[in-house]
Design brief:
Layout lengths: L6 E7 L14 H8 L3 H6 L4 E3 L4 E5 L9 E8 L5 E5 L3 E5 L4 E9 L4 E3 L4 E8 L7 E3 H17 L7 H4 L7 E2 L7 H6 L23 E4 L12 H15 L7 E3 L5 E3 H5 L2 E6 L2 E6 L7 H14 L2 H6 L1 E3 L10 E4 L5 E11 L2 E8 L8 E3 L10 E2 L7 E3 L2 E3 L4 E4 L3
Parallel strand pairs: 1-10
Antiparallel strand pairs: 1-9, 2-7, 3-6, 3-9, 4-5, 4-7, 7-8, 11-19, 12-21, 13-14, 15-16, 17-25, 18-19, 18-25, 19-20, 20-21, 20-22, 23-24
Amino acid sequence: MKKRRGTTVFAIWIAIALCGCGQKAQAVTDQLIESGDDLVYRSYGEAAIQVEAGSKLLIDLTTVDGLDRIESVYICNCRTKEEVSLPASNRLTYSVEEDGFYAVYAVTEEGEYIDLSGKTGIEHVYDTGSGDNEIVDLKEEQENEDKEKQTESLLDPDGTTLETRIRVPEGYERISEADGSFAEFLRAYPMHEDGYKVHYYDGGIKEHAAQAAVFDMHLGDKDLQQCADSVIRMYAEYLRDNGRSDEIAFHFVSGFLCDYKTWLAGNKVSVVGNNVSWTATGVREDTDESFEAYLNTVFTYASTISLKKESEAVSLKDIRAGDIFIHAGSPGHVVMVADVCEKAGKKAFLLAQGYMPAQDFYVLTNELHADDPWYYEDEIVYPFCTPEYVFGEECLMRPGYL
């Protein structure tokens, strides 16, 4: 097909089953001598790609096993038997000058030849009579459409709680939880409207946050509520909302136990050097203002170090909402399991985090599939990578606050 004026260039990726991939053999050049110059056509004829003049072959080697062993990539015109050799690279582009069928393959150091037709895309040229030239990547368009469909199926912009905002993947069901449980509390937690950006304590916006959804959680105007503090707040809010304020208690890094009951009894925390103690100030009522003042005190002296000491290790198969992945340190980091679903005994879970400086608490995306925020049990390996932190070793734990 001749290239004419008024054309649109379409990038169409050909997915042809691999033919002879991984086949052990002598070097292709040697086989050409032994078998005749039609070897390439006979070997790859069924997988040969029809290309018109003016188009480009786009060869992606990034997913080819043994890429480091590939010496050269060959493009062979199956009619003329002429071939071009290209040095191996992650991605290659070759402009086709003549209409015809082309075989694309690689040769390894050991003389193994690998069909690359399934790794080759074509920037086709079609006459549309539009009078304009433009590139339309149909593969990318299809991938975007698939992502949009998946996103639409998992993220409901009209959902106002964690459970209604983020649906479970196909075939999965949320783990059954008891009424009044911490898991149910998390699922019913209010979320900011869809598209809401993560904010810092001072009102600034975190432009590159990897959020799937943002909890409508109180943040305050001080740089206090960071990663561990957000987890502490969630547990404290749950206990208070369920009439269990007497159970609210968190250790400082120093080991001092700061409990809400003693706080309400009219005491404040006094810190002198390394000495921490209670000082009587008068009985307080359990108001939101008093609760926030108590939490700010905890946030000031607690961290991932104290949070880890108050937690115990659990196995991935037993993961549940409220568990944490934690690296204790100064700084350290922690993310919390916000929800869990299951399919055929395999679990998937959502992760949420705060960070520093103090910022909103939000559900993380999953970089393995940005359109799907769920983390799947079979995906979890160490180092465990989340969008903003890498946990180097097994670190799944369960806080002992309930």
